[in-house]
Amino acid sequence: MTPTSATSSWTATDLVDGVSADLTDPIDVLDPATGHPCGEVSHGADAAERAGRAADAAARALPGWADLSARQRADILLRAVDLLADRIPEIARILAVEAGKRLPEAEGEVRFSSEYLRWFAEELRRPHGEFFTSEDRARRQLSIHRPLGVVASLTPWNFPISIQARKVAPALAAGCTVLARVSEKAPLAVTRWLGTLQEAGLPPGVLNVVHGSSRTITSTWLDHPAVRGVSFTGSTGVGSQIMAQAARRIVRPMLELGGNAPFVVLEDADLEVALTQAELGKLRNTGQSCIGANRFLVHRSLAEEFGARLAARFDALTIGPGTADPVPDVGPVIDANRVTAVTDLVEEAVADGGRLLTARRELPAEGFWVAPALVADVPLTSRLAREEVFGPAAAIIAFDTEEEAVRLANDTEMGLAAYVVTRDAGRAFRFAERLDAGIVGINDALPTVSFTPMGGTKQSGLGREGGAEGLREYQETTYLAWRP
């Protein structure tokens, strides 16, 4: 990926078998803060052919990459960490422009992504496998891990670098070769990030990037005989389609799908902690986070004050481009469709009888903007109370008992993340253990780190990313029975 001019216009092209391709049939990448192009991405009609060549290259590269020692693979990943350290400002600025992120959040995402490379480089050198206690003294029994094979990594636009890092780092560490497809809405910074891994010394074909039709590229890879796994982050609807395609060849699906995270404020909560964490959990990345707080469940004794004070905080936030100086508190959403989707949810909730607590604010004329919104007294049947919002808006729903709070929190087909605020440590753990979610933050709205597992229950997906469990997703286990 290279800049095409001095006015912050960049391109994203394919990387196949170690070679960066020329830009083919480009489409514009829009800056959400203006609605104007900030770059271009290859998006040609020949996506199936390019995807097929990439899969062939990954298959050829697999034996050599898998045969390298753990130390050799780790050295390359750590070399990439060093290279990326010098490129944080450059990559973060591209990310802030194309994805509408506040510059500090963009810089944080680039740093966080490097931590996945560092942690998995260290983890792969630790002993893995298991010796079993045998009932037959003449036999020894053990298990070993080996690479899964060629894997596809399919990622969205909201955290384009860190989500790729959660997949690519463990896959490469495990000895797999990778086929990456990124969203055309924010492909520029992540393509630069992936290219840095190539510069760090990956052999040709170990990491391949193809841009274009997601449906065409995904189908091509899932039909390729060398592909053994597919890791996808995105909507539950698309995830179920990918799972069905993967079933045709018994390709391992690893799916991190939609969320509907409850943020529960119990009656003994420190209200200042609750407000601060609620603001962080709702407005990170302008609310466009699958693990973000999606609905506030607040004990009735605190609901009125919580709503009034959080609304005042929301109304005091500055809104503007993420690269502005000073940096605003809230940036744009990704596109016009997201503006419509979030605005409709808020308006429908008010029409259903909810009370809009936040002010209706004047927004920039250009770009894609939604003012942070809170709606109280939202009926449980309203879409704002039941659907993933994926934007800077939320419902406040009062409850009377802890049992009711648990029931409301679990009353969703999703189970990715949940949050609870309380002063009582024992109560926190008792409550958290009853939440049907893969991630629970206790007095903490930003719980994810590189060395812990992330993933969901129910329709929020299969498998885990991050931590030792994330490495296992890209490995096969072989059991050995040995008679010396």
From TrEMBL:
PANTHER family: SUCCINATE-SEMIALDEHYDE DEHYDROGENASE, MITOCHONDRIAL (PTHR43353). InterPro entries: Ald_DH/histidinol_DH, Ald_DH_C, Ald_DH_CS_CYS, Ald_DH_CS_GLU, Ald_DH_N, Aldehyde_DH_dom, Aldehyde_DH_Superfamily. Residues 25-478 form the Aldehyde dehydrogenase domain. It is an enzyme of class 1 (oxidoreductase). Its EC number is 1.2.1.16. The lineage of its organism: Bacteria, Bacillati, Actinomycetota, Actinomycetes, Propionibacteriales. Pfam families: Aldedh. GO terms for molecular function: succinate-semialdehyde dehydrogenase (NAD+) activity. It comes from Microlunatus phosphovorus (strain ATCC 700054 / DSM 10555 / JCM 9379 / NBRC 101784 / NCIMB 13414 / VKM Ac-1990 / NM-1). The active site is at residue 256. Signal peptide: none annotated. Keywords: Oxidoreductase. This is Succinate-semialdehyde dehydrogenase. Belongs to the aldehyde dehydrogenase family. GO terms for biological process: gamma-aminobutyric acid catabolic process.
